[in-house]
Each structure stands twice: as structure tokens, then as C-alpha cells.
Amino acid sequence: MTSIPYIDIHTHQADSDPEILSIVNMSISDNKNELDRNQAYSIGIHPWDIEKLEIDSIDNYLEDFFADKSSIAIGEIGLDKLIGTNFSTQEKFFTAQVQLAKLTQKPVIIHCVKSQEELLRIKQENDTGTAWVFHGYSKSLQLAKDLLKFGFFLSFGENLLRNEKLQSVFREIPLEKIFLETDDKQIDIKKIYQKAAEIKGIEIDVLKEQILLNYLKCF
């Protein structure tokens, strides 16, 4: 890849476009034997999936699950108060994976729904020495500032195209702390880059170059 790539930091589908470098999210239900070894993956136990596992076996499971060298990040992992799973159980699984991030020195990609205070507490208690990327950011500027103080990177997705309040938030976030993503949406990452560059008032190549620098720093 000779030109600066469009980096899709979190997606659920691989992209064959040679201009796009994507990190494909893999869940516990996916077959690791079907991985394309030339594709970068994030692998994690999503809070929606933890009921499928026994807490007593989490350590052994995680060690096996994250040993795959094609996994360059742990995620998406996190906390979600809108699901029925016991929250303390969510915290146990999340903390175990964060501790593994420290052990493997891999960045983490975070899913967080109505659990920001708990997330910040766990971040403060667990210095992994690696990057934490808050994916699908669509919250307030104040929360963004709080997350930045704790060292988070913020990843923005499709909502950036149409949400004017989010666009105002994005405008205030330092380029050095930004990633872009498609998540599970059927949309071209290039469209998100175009909108992001427009909001920032910069050339798209400047945005691509900075996000590449962010990527190289974190991954």
C-alpha cells in the first residue's frame, strides 16, 4: 500500500478495497479457523455475549482466545446497562480482558452504554500501558473531555454524517485523539472521512495522515 490508507478502526466486515485498512471485529461465535491471516482483527468478549461463558473458566478461555497473532486489539469489550446481564458480572469479564490487554500489550476497543462512570473508574484502576479506544462515540463534549483526560481515543462513525450536535463535538476533539469507523453499518469509510475533513476544515489527506499516525502509535 503506497498511498496513505483510509483506516477503519472498527468494523464487522472486511473490505476488499486496497485503499482501506480495516480492523475487523470478531466475536466469540466466529470460527477462528476461517480467519484471513492477512487481515487485522480485534477479538473480545462483548458484554452481550458473556452469558454464553462460565465465569470460573474465563482466564483459561481468554488466554486461548487472544493467543491468535492476527488479533492486534482486544475488543470490542465493555459495559452496557441496557442489557439484562448482571452488571457485576459484566465488570468481572471486562476487567479480566483489560488485565489481559496489559499482559499482551494490546490496545482495547471499548463498548460503553450508560456506564461511563464505571468505565472511568476501571480505567483509573487498571493502567494497561496501551491505548483505549471508545468506539462509536456519540455523546456530549463534556464526556469527551473527561475521556480525553483519562487518555482515551475517540472513534466516530456514521452518526457523524447527520448529527449536528455530534459534529460540533467532533470539531473540538484534537486530531491526535481521533479514529473513524463503520462499525456494523453498510457505509463506505471514505464518506465518513470526507465529512470529518469537512467538519475540521482540513484536506482529507491531512486527516488520513494524522489518523495513520494515531494508528501507528496505538497498534
Describe this entry's structure for a reader.
An 8-stranded parallel sheet has the order 1-2-3-4-5-6-7-8, with helices on both faces. The model has no long low-confidence stretch (mean pLDDT 90). Helices cover 37% and strands 20% of the residues. The protein contains 7 helices and 8 strands. Strand 5, helix 3 and strand 6 (132-134) form a beta-alpha-beta unit. The protein has helices at residues 58-65, 87-104, 116-125, 141-149, 164-172, 189-200, 204-218; strands at 6-11, 20-26, 40-43, 71-80, 108-113, 132-134, 153-156, 178-180. The protein is globular and about 50 Å long. Helix 1 crosses helix 2 and helix 6 packs across helix 7 (204-218). It is of the alpha/beta class.
How large is the radius of gyration? Answer: 17 Å
Q: What oligomeric arrangement do these chains adopt?
A: single chain
Order of helices and strands: EEEHEHEHEHEHEHH
Tally of DSSP helical segments: 7
Strand order of the largest sheet: 1-2-3-4-5-6-7-8
* SS-based class: alpha/beta
Number of strands: 8
Strand residue percentage: 15-25%
Uncertain stretches of 5 or more adjacent residues: none
Distance between the termini: 17 Å
Describe the main β-sheet briefly: 8 strands, parallel
Overall mean pLDDT: 90
Principal-axes shape call: globular
The percent of residues in helical segments reads: 25-40%
